[in-house]
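Model: Ready when you are.
Researcher: Fold this.
Model:
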Amino acid sequence: MKALLSKLFSPPAGEIPHIMHTDTPPLQGAAMSVAYFAPQAGGDFHDFVRVGPTRFIFGMLDVAGKRDSSAPILEAAKTCFHSSAEEIFSAPELNESEAMVELSRRLNLEIMRAAGGVRSCPAFAGCYNEELGTLCYVNAGHTPALLRDETSVVELPATGLPLGLFSLAPTDARIVGLGSKGAFAVVSRGVVEAESKNSEFGLTGVKGVMRSESPSAKALSRRILEEVQAFLHNPPRHNDVTALTLMRAD
C-alpha cells in the first residue's frame, strides 16, 4: 500500500514560500506530519509506505544539487524506496535492524546508478512499529533527529555516511522507544542552517520548539517552521525547509 508522495517541482519565479503539509496515512496510537515551505528548489524528498499491519516506513533524503538536476535521482530514489520497503519487510520472520540496513543499501546503489556516479545524499529512514511503540532507524549523514520524552530531548546522530558516495558504504541501524506522549522530529538541513545576524537557528532552535507543548504532530511540524520564519524575519529562501514529526497519542 502506497501513501501520497511528495511533489517534485521547480518554483515559479518570484513566488513567496509558504507552509504546506503532506497528508500522511493514519497510525495506530500515534500520528505523523510533514510540514515544508513550498515551492521547493533543492533536493529534499520525503515519503512513506505501510509495509504491514503494524509497521510504517518513512524517509527523508537530501540529494545534493538543485531540483532540476536532481529530479531524475529523486524519482529513482522514491521508486526504489517503495518497491524495496515492500519487498524487504514482507518477510514472515523479520529483523527490523537488518531490514533497515538492507533498505539503506539498496537506496545507496540506486542513487549512484541514477546519478551515473557519486552524488551525496544525506538520508534518515525509520520503521515505526505501532504495536511496540519503537522506532528502528538509519541516519546516513543526515541532520540528527530529536527524540523527546517526559524529561529531556536527545539527539539521534548519524549511524553511517551519506548515501551516494561509496557503493559499499557501511551503515548501522538503531532502535529507540517512543514513550507515552513522546515526540520525534527530523528536520532538513535548511532548518538548522537558517541564518540571521550571523547566528544559525540550529538544532538548538528545534529543541526549543520540542520542549514546548504541542497538541499534535501537525501542530509541532508547523510550529518548527513558523519559528524558523520568525528567526529569519522572512519566509526562508536559502534552501528547502522541511520538518517531519511523530507523536504518540497514548
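Researcher: Now this one.
Model:
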Amino acid sequence: MGKYITKRILLMFLTMFVIMTMSFILIKLLPLPAVREMGRDVNLILAKREKMGYNKPILVQYYLFLKNILTEWDWGVGEQMYEGLSVWSIMMQKLPYTVLVNLYSILLAIPLGLSFGIYAALKKNKWQDHMISTLVMVFYSVPSYVYAFLIQYFLCFRLGWFPLQMESMGKAGSLFSWRMFSSMLPAIFSLAFGTVAGLTRYTRAELSEVLTGDYMLLARTKGLTKAQAISRHALRNAMVVIFPMIMGEFIGILGGSLIIESIFGIPGVGSLYITSINVRDYNFFMAMSMFYTFIGLASGIVNDISYGLIDPRIRMGSKK
C-alpha cells in the first residue's frame, strides 16, 4: 500500500507539472493585458512583471514562475482584478465561502441519498422503487444550474423565502450566523440535488446486489432477523463501493461549483476563477487552474486508497 500511495502521489505531481506547463505556455501566447492606471499599485505590478521576467523568453519566464512558487510561494499579484494584492491571500479569503456552501450541501445530501437508496433497494421492483429510480434519473441528468434558476425563481422571487443573492459579511455579521446560512440555502439546495440522486443510485444498485448474496441467506438461517442481516452484513459490504464516493465528495468540497457561485453571488473561489478568465488576469488564472487540478487529482487518490482502508481484502498495487 505504501508503494502504491507513493507512486500515485508522484504521478499526481507529474500530471500537475504537465498541465501547468501547457497552461503557462498557452497563456503566454495570448496578448498581455495593459496595466491600468491605478495610482501607486501600478508600480507594484510593473515590478512584479519585471521579477517574473515578462520581457524575457517564455522558458525563462516559466523558470522564474516556478522558482517564485517553490522558494517563496509567490503566485504574483492581481493585475486586472484585486490590483496589486497577493493572488494567494485573495484565494484564501474566498475559500471559506466555497467550503461552507459545499460542506452544507454534502451534509444534507448524504443522509438523504443513503436513506432513499436503502429504501429503494428494500422495495426492489415495487412501485416505490420505480418512483425513486425515475426521480433519480431526472435529478441526476438535469444540470445543477437548472435547479438554481428554478429555486431562485420560486423560493427566492415568488415566495420570498430567501434572498436572491448571498448576504455579504457586513450585513449578515458572521460567516456562521443564521442570516448567512439562510442566504446560502438556495445554493446548498442546488448543489445537493445532484449529490442526493447520485448517492441514491449507487446505494440502491450496490445494496440490491448484496441482498441477493448467498451469505445473506446463511445469515437468516442462523437466526438473524432481516433488519440485523441488513445492518450487520449487507450495508457493510455495500459501503465498500459507496464510502469512497462519499470520501471523494468531501475532498472535492474545496473545488466548489463555478456556475452556482456565480448565480447566487457567492464570493468563493469558483466565481473568482470565472472572473479571472473573463478579464484575462493571468496570475489568478494560473493559481486557480493549479488549485482545481490539485483538488481533482487528490480526490481520485483518496477514492482509490479508501477502497483498501474499508476492505482489508483489497490490496492496491498488488501483483497477486
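Researcher: Key takeaway?
Model: The chain is about 75% helix and 0% strand.
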